[in-house]
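Consider this pair:
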Amino acid sequence: MEAYTAVISLLRTLDQPYISKLFHGRTANALDSLRATAEYFHDVLEKASNKSGVDIEKIKSLEEEIRIVVSEAEDVVEMKISKIIKGDRWTFRILPHHDMLPVVEKMDTTKKQVMEILSHDADQILELTGASSMSDPMLSGHLKDDIVQGLDGDLEIIDKRLRGPTSYLDIVTISGMGGIGKTTLAKKTYDHLQIRHHFDIFVWVTISQEFRYRNVLLEALHCISKQRVNVNTKDYDKMNDSELADLVQKSLKGPRYLVVVDDIWSRDVWDSISQIFPNRNNGSRVLLTTRETDVAIYANTSIHHKMNLLDLDNSWKLLRDKVFGLEHDHPPELEEIGKK
């Protein structure tokens, strides 16, 4: 598929090692947003091509649109790289992150269209947005296969916080640099058998930079609707944001819930969504991941969990298992260069 090829090309461009050296601040954040959306398209198209859970006919109408918007995104990124490498210093002044926003917005809009088409199959929309449901007590297959190294200690800390004796609503926060494994840790915690037995209802919402309040509410309701009979999902479109927020609150008031708020960037966003989580003094929890330490502290001033870089041993194990897989041994002659 041409769309799939275009997505692979964009991801390769964004993964070039010099990208992190050329772009900083909001421009780097915009590139992170592009990468996240491109990875979503990659998952959808790959599953469709492998006939593993996504009906290609459902997204065929958007395949060309995906190809166009992804190709445009790559053109914009390559243009910025070219100008910087050529020494056009004015690029830093005249072409700030704002010139990235239109293509970020287009990518986000197309993603929402794909999600809307797939939302008729609730299992697909939950799987592809990283959420799970009680009808499937463990996370979807591609999350089970995640290779994790050096997170056992972090997992134990978060597990104790989530299942602790505190009755009031506790906000448990995980902070750390991009790519350090915050989302992976949150997924492993969310999927942990003891966590599954401890809470009654589970919700996963992803925020990212392109915050859309309504989309967060809909994502939460898609999770809840798989576990509680509240309202026909077809009625969501008829409701305004206040009605959707009220429905989320009412759905969470009874059970002991765990809500994961993944990749939140600002205090304002937390202020916007924190009100939808009721405190019924029944041991419910919100698990929040963020790159911004000040956001973690703002959400819970008492304590936050900061993730550190992997040590050398676990870094080597992670690289080795990613390259050769858990079921295969690595060639001994590659160990020395691999560790370097």
